[in-house]
Amino acid sequence: MIFNGATVDPADTEGESFSGVFTHELGHLLNLGHTVVNGQALFFGGSDAMTPDGQPMLVEPEDVETMYPFLDPALEGTARWQAVPHRDDVAMLSTLYPNSDLPLTAFGSIRGRLVDSKGVGY
Question: What is the mean pLDDT of residues 95-99?
Answer without folding.
Answer: 83
